[in-house]
Design brief:
Number of strands: 8
Structural class: alpha+beta
Radius of gyration: 17 Å
CATH architecture: Alpha-Beta Complex
Number of domains: 1
Shape: globular
Order of helices and strands: HHEHEEEHEHEEEHH
Distance between the termini: 56 Å
CATH topology: DNA primase DNAg catalytic core, N-terminal domain
Number of helices: 7
CATH class: Alpha Beta
Largest sheet: 4 strands, antiparallel
Helix content: 25-40%
Strand order of the largest sheet: 1-2-3-4
Length: about 170
């Protein structure tokens, strides 16, 4: 018999995330997967075969929860992190990053859990929602926008997520 939230705890433990970090950043474990509750948070169903979910709250600069990202367990198909239907795919930004002084380094990671691992180690980081969270595809090439250059901002405004376009305005 499985222990309660075994997949969630194992997943985070394998990545070095401590119980203190789980509490500090408000992660929630869910193995009930109530259809109404999931629909309220995501606006959709989760894939068949999911047993547990780690709910990751995404806060704004004032510490208000904007959305919750669902990390589904076990992996089902290609989906790993599910954002609410109709959301703009905003990245996961740990609380300490919002107040970071201008010019301080910030690591951009592929996922919220990797950003949490960095934050736990005392390194400022944000987590994109997968590798496509800050990119736009043009023909066969993939463009990533690592900083706010004029050319990058122009391209970001024209081809990327609404979240990135808003942050690249000059």
């Amino acid at each position: 018999m499985m222990r309660e939230h075994e997949l969630c705890k194992e997943y985070l433990s394998e990545r070095g995330i401590t119980d203190e970090t789980v509490k500090k950043y408000g992660l929630e474990f869910d193995n009930r997967l109530d259809a109404k509750f999931v629909k309220e948070r995501l606006g959709r169903k989760i894939p068949k075969g999911v047993i547990e979910v780690i709910w990751i709250p995404v806060y704004d600069a004032l510490r208000n929860i904007k959305i919750r990202i669902a990390r589904i367990l076990p992996n089902v198909g290609k989906e790993r992190f599910i954002c609410p239907w109709g959301s703009d795919g905003c990245p996961y930004v740990p609380a300490g990053v919002y107040g970071l002084a201008h010019g301080k380094p910030v690591i951009v990671t592929e996922a919220p859990i990797k950003a949490l691992a960095c934050s736990q180690a005392g390194v400022a980081a944000i987590g994109l929602n997968g590798v496509y969270g800050a990119s736009a595809k043009r023909s066969d090439e993939l463009y990533i926008y690592p900083r706010r250059s004029t050319a990058g901002a122009r391209l970001a405004r024209s081809r990327s997520s609404p979240w990135l376009r808003r942050r690249c305005r000059h």
